[in-house]
Structure formats: C-alpha cells, structure tokens
Amino acid sequence: MFLNSFQNxxxxxxxSKLYMENCMIMQENEKLRKKAQLLNQENxxxxxxxxxxxxxxxxxxxxxxxxxxxxxxxxxxxxDCSSSRKP
Length: 87
Prior knowledge:
This is Protein LITTLE ZIPPER 4. By secondary structure, the protein is mostly helical.
C-alpha cells in the first residue's frame, strides 16, 4: 500500500513537471510562429519591391543588361538577355 502511494505521488510529480514543460514549449512555439509570420510578411514585401524595381528598370532601359543576370557573364559576352530570359 505504501509503495503504491509513493509511486502515485512520483507519477503525479512527473506528470506535473511534463505538463509545465509542455506549456513552456507551446508558449515558445507560439512566439516562434509569430516571428516566422512577421519574417514572411517582410520577405513578401521585399520581394514585391524587388519585382517592382526590376519591372521599372526593364521599362526604363528596354534592352539594358540586367544586373542580376550579368553577375556571372564575362566582359566579352553579349549582354543582351532580353531574348533568352523574361522577368
């Protein structure tokens, strides 16, 4: 009888400890979820700005070299990328 009561109390303490750990994990998970959501929104806004700049840059310069595609081209390479890639 004493052993059974001791085991029950031990299990209750372990259960309480695990419950508290689970609560802390869920709180941290919620914080990380909110942070990830904010980072995703920021990323989408930056991507939209980049697309707008690329579109406006393409309209201004028509066949001018795209700075992103020219990074790997050698100086002697033809810089007209308008026929091979479209934004």
